[in-house]
Specification:
By secondary structure, chain A is α/β, with parallel strands linked by helices. Chain A is built from nine helices and ten strands. Classes of the chains: A alpha/beta, B alpha/beta, C mainly alpha, D mainly alpha.
Chain lengths: ~250, ~400, ~290, ~325
Amino acid sequence: MAELVLSARGMSRRFGGLYANRDVSLDMHKGMLHAVLGPNGAGKSTLINLLSGDLPPSAGQILYRGEDISGWSPDKRSRAGIGRSYQRTNIFPAFTVFENCRLAAQSRTPRALRIFSKAVAFPDLRDAADRAIEQAGLAERRDVVAATLSHGEQRQLEIAMVLATAPSVLLLDEPLAGMGPEESQSMVALLKKLTPDHAILLVEHDMDAVFAVADVITVMVTGQVLESGPPDQIRDSVAVQEAYLGEGEPDDE
Amino acid sequence: MEQGFNRRRFLLSTAGIAGGLALPAAPVFAQGAKKIRVGLMLPYTGTYASLGTAITNGFKLAVDEGGGKLGGREIEYFTVDDESDAAKAPENANKLIKRDNVDVLVGTVHSGVALAMARVARETNTLLIVPNAGADEITGPLCSPNIFRTSFSAWQPSYAMGQVMADRKHKNVVTLAWKYSFGEQSVAGFKEAFEKAGGKVVKEMYLPFPNVEFQPYLTEIAALKPDAVFVFFSGGGAVKFVRDYATAGLRSSIPLYGPGFVTDGTLEGQGEAAEGMLTTLHYADNLDLPKSKSFKAAYFKAFKMQPDVFAVQGYDAAQLFAAGLAQVNGDVGKRADMIKAMETATIDSPRGAFTLSKAHNPVQDIYLRKVEGKENKFVSVAAKALADPARGCRM
Amino acid sequence: MDFSTFLIQLLNALQYGLLLFLVASGLTLVFGIMGIINLAHGSFYMMGAYMAFALTALSGNLLVAILVGIALSVLIGFLLEWALFSRLYKRDHLDQVLLTYGLILIFEELRSLLVGDDVHGVPIPELLSASIQLSETLSYPVYRLFMSAVCILLAIVMYWLIRHTRLGMMIRAGSSNREMVQALGINIDLIYRIVFGLGVTLAAFAGMLAAPVSSVYPGMGNQVLIICFVVVVIGGVGSVWGALVAALLIGLADTFGKVIAPDYAGLAVYVLMAAVLLWRPEGIFRRI
Amino acid sequence: MPLPRNKTRNYLPLVLLVLALFPVFGSSYYNELIAKIMIMAIFALSLDLLVGFTGLVSFGHAAFFGAAAYSVVLLSPKYDPGNLWLVLPAAVLTGAAVAFVVGLFVLRTKGIYFIMVTLAFAQMIYFVFHDTPLGGGSDGAFLNVKPELRIGEKVLLDLNEPMQFYYIVLAFLVVAYVFLRVLLRSPLGHALAGIRSNEHRMQSLGFPVFLYKLASFVTAGGLAGLAGFLSACQYGFVTPEILSWHQSGNVLLMVILGGMGTLNGAAIGAFAFVVLQEVFSALTKHWQLLMGAVIVTVVMVLPGGLSSLPQRLKGLLIGGGNRNG
């Protein structure tokens, strides 16, 4: 079995009286891509927000390499190696692609006190940024202002920024949303390429893509885990088919 | 957005400098006429605006009575609105002294502003005549050969009131004033005379300037039940306090006294609530003096309104300056002679003639006045030829 | 302090607090619903007080003055919203702050030009001019009690308006998301106009109501403005209920501060504020 | 707001030259006026670090300026010149320390509430000086003799000398300007730009955003303290009014007037503001009315400030393309 990196244990989150996540447990291992499926409102985004620290859990634990991190702030989790991307593009629109990634890389080596050096003068930051841009397939658009990128390219930048922080865990919230078929294909290829070195959590609607890349799939319904297992098990599960797949194609969010 | 600052923009901004500088500087080139340059630094906006206007009117009336001339020379006025803002005072004083090169600086109402002006006047050795501000320091520790005052010190009316209240057999008194130097000095002057005459100040209460939420203090006064209350407020605060005091029912059981500022220029707002109140000041609305009557008539003719104590003080500021200029025939260069003449002059003021103390503060009668209708009516002379002790003045 | 004096001071604190609530309620509404920091709020208070003065002088009756004044305030509120504020909703908060800052200067000068800089008193209406004897020496003006009663009444009316009416529902919805409410087909522009008009009117009404006891004088708006901001900060943005609690707390802190530690009385309110913010960074209550 | 990138700025030496030569031609009054403008420019620059470069709209910046100015008066001996070595760092530290404490409270809030809370805290500090005996209460306090810089018996710099004072202010303006330029292109500066653009994302990328904002707040407080120090020395007089919300509003106005997020804009704004005040108050006693009208006009029709004016004019002439809603 591969190395256990991040896991949730009985994690719940209430909004008022409603449970957005209820008693969710799941594990993420290095070298494995763990996909989360579920209809709208199943609590997938809440799950990512809980793991990344954007939301504090109401109950339960989050363990990172054996340590309880449920009380950690998002930035502390990020520095520990938990990187996330957003479902709605969340970038620095007025910066260039390179600047977006360079700033992301800077978070690993803050150097906040070196106020008399130029930020652009650090070769390690430049290399980290360029590497991430290369990986995400944006090399040709390196010096373009982010706001002027196409939607698909912005999604790629979203990933590149996370990669520039050299994370060991990737929490990806619908990276394929709104992408054309070609862009989707290259993103799927990228995910495959990233899997060996990372523990990845992928929330995605695109079934084909999920079944193509996932090592483990967890299906959520109304905030709870319905079933979890390898793709084949999920494909064959009666419960999943009844609850979810049976309803036909999920609608886009 | 960071788009460099190109030459065109730079030219625009230097044009701005030039425009800004040229405009106020223009009057400097009126040298040929050899006019006397008078700088009026007074409040023309805000709470004290009407006081500033009255002082200006009084000053100009005196000049006009001399045919528009003082010491044989024509007068040119430079005015700055001090906004009663002490923070801007040094800068505003410098405008008149350094930009407009005035021969005399006249101002102001607000004590804090006047203190700052006094310091600038000392530093630059400019002749300063204070037509109102009563801070004791101006003719105390800050006294200087070139600084004069034609109004009063905070100590004067309050000290006189201390004697009045002791004479009226009040034993235990509570004081209430704004917590700033003029308020504290007023209370100190009162306390000095009152306790010397055997009275006792039971409690000194202060509230932050310019707070006007008096109700807690009125409750406190009612609980303490003193024989009388000595109070200092001015302007809007005085209006509100006198009204609140009356509506709290205290007026009938505990008489209220204060220096004249409590009922001067505020009677219209105070209305019936102030009726019968006794205050002390160096002026009263119905003084039976020939000079007072002629001044009133002339002022009314010129400005279509009744003069108040502030107009008198402005009028006397011009008279004092005129006395100095007359001695040197308008040659302001002969500073020492001019100052000597001003120091020894007897000013024929509408308040009654007065001379100046060694510290350049008026030695004057303080009147006890009573509010009747919309006037502060003369009752008696509370203190004859009262001189400020000028503590801390080394001159 | 004996017990009866304590009780009277308590009454003073409540009475002051209630008046503060009345002034601050309009500020917190505009703030919470429209997201506008209205620095000119104090100017509207001042405007109300001067209207009470001028209209009472004209009509000889405070009630008539207040009724006419309310109509004028609503009008002024609508006009300002239409001419200026409605064009700034998409902009930064900063622009709105600066706009209202500019308006303060304009209103203050207009006041000076139109009415002058003198202090004026406004007579208490005959009907309410009596006093109630509280202790041997102290009596309490009926008008002050009347003011408190009006403030309480308005608090109840506002609570009811916001909780139980259709307009209140739309206002509450508008405060959470402008775009969404618009999408639901509610005329958000009209709601904003009404809220702003209401804010102006509440401030002006407070000024009119207080004029007989406060008298009218230049700069009166600025004095009340800052304390209103403290009310809103302590109470929580946009919370009318919070404003009421905060205003009463401030009334207590201010009154007893003056009695117990007169040298530091001005600070009492701010110490209270710091303590509340330490405990709850966004005030006691959030939202309406 | 893009990151600062290299641009040619060859007009700066020219501005510097004009400022350096001005006292040779100007009268003493105008020297003081220009010195005041430069002090206000430092003040506006410090606020621009918050408003323009970190996205923190502070409406309480006068608190740091004023507290520092008071520290000069409180730390100087009554009748002797204070020691510049002591008084200047103390003033800057006072500004920074007050900013640190206030920052711990206010930086926990965001957006419109942040504006409010900064205003309220500044007002609290205003009342500390206004209502307690600490700094002379509402009457203010005087600095009888201005500080001087001496080594042994030799007086190197004496702030009582107007000429020396002018050049000291100019030197500090240059220092403050260069310091901010350098700071803004440093990693910290880029992080602040990121926070301004998208604070949430900065946090999820691993930046301890609160600490960065606090650093910015404290730095701005220190720089405001420098301006406060110079202001206290210029007039030798401090009153609580220099901490009032009007002062905070005015400096915010300078930043907006010049166009926020550009260092040059802040300086231009300070210049324009003081000159407007000077010109308007010479025109009429109701000059605040004109000032108010200018403010409203700038807000309504010129959201980018004065430094966006040439751009907009160009846009108009060429036929739009730069249309702001």
